[in-house]
Design brief:
42% of the residues lie in helices and 19% in strands. With 151 residues, the protein is α+β, with helices and mostly antiparallel strands. The chain has one domain (3-150): Nucleoside diphosphate kinase-like domain (Alpha-Beta Plaits, 2-Layer Sandwich). Strands 2-3-1-4 form a 4-stranded antiparallel β-sheet, with helices on both faces. The structure holds inosine-5'-diphosphate (IDP) and magnesium ion. Inosine-5'-diphosphate (IDP) is lined by residues 54, 59, 63, 93, 111-112, 114, 117, 120. The site of inosine-5'-diphosphate has 9 residues, from loops.
């Protein structure tokens, strides 16, 4: 089994629109487990670190401004191939291209307000999780997970 841990953010638009429950449910129904979760407001420094790969893009300022504009919910989500599996649940970056049934395909309209972040690789997940969580923040969900997955 390839159990992975990834970072999911319910961005400030998701919190403001009252969609956190709907979003969390989609990961849980797939069988993934949440091993850490917090509601927090990100400061500019950590936002720039999180989105560092986009620092030269024209939308970087708006991205950092938006992600720091209100509370977000950060989660560590675990499961078999969770990095790619969670990206599938989230859908394409532009909601217009996101499949119906995905979070963005069902609930979002525009790329700048697309509700969720999900790490795009195992290396990104490891890097990003450290921005939001300390080791002590994680609960062990291994038992719950292994009970319900089998090759
Ligand atoms: P992702 O969230 O699907 O991984 P990325 O390419 O990593 O997409 O971009 C990070 C975030 O930056 C996106 O979720 C989106 O909110 C925003 N973004 C990406 N491309 C654009 C753009 O062309 N215009 C405005 N915002 C963008
Ligand atoms: Mg990305």
């Amino acid at each position: 089994m390839a159990i992975e841990r990834t970072l999911i953010l319910c961005k400030p638009d998701a919190v403001s629109r009252g969609l956190v429950g709907d979003i969390v449910t989609r990961f849980e129904r797939r069988g993934y487990v949440i091993s850490a979760m917090k509601l927090m407001q990100l400061d500019g420094e950590r936002a720039r670190e999180h989105y560092g790969e986009h620092k030269d893009k024209p939308f970087f300022g708006d991205l950092v401004g938006f992600i720091t504009s209100g509370p977000l919910v950060a989660m560590a989500v675990e499961g078999e191939n969770a990095v790619d599996g969670c990206r599938q649940i989230i859908g394409a970056t532009n909601p217009l291209s996101a499949a119906p049934g995905s979070i963005r395909g069902d609930l979002a309209q525009t790329i700048g307000r697309n509700l969720v972040h999900g790490s795009d690789s195992k290396a990104s997940a490891d890097r990003e999780l450290k921005i939001f969580f300390d080791d002590k923040d994680f609960a062990s969900r291994r038992h719950d997970l292994e009970r319900w997955i089998k090759d």
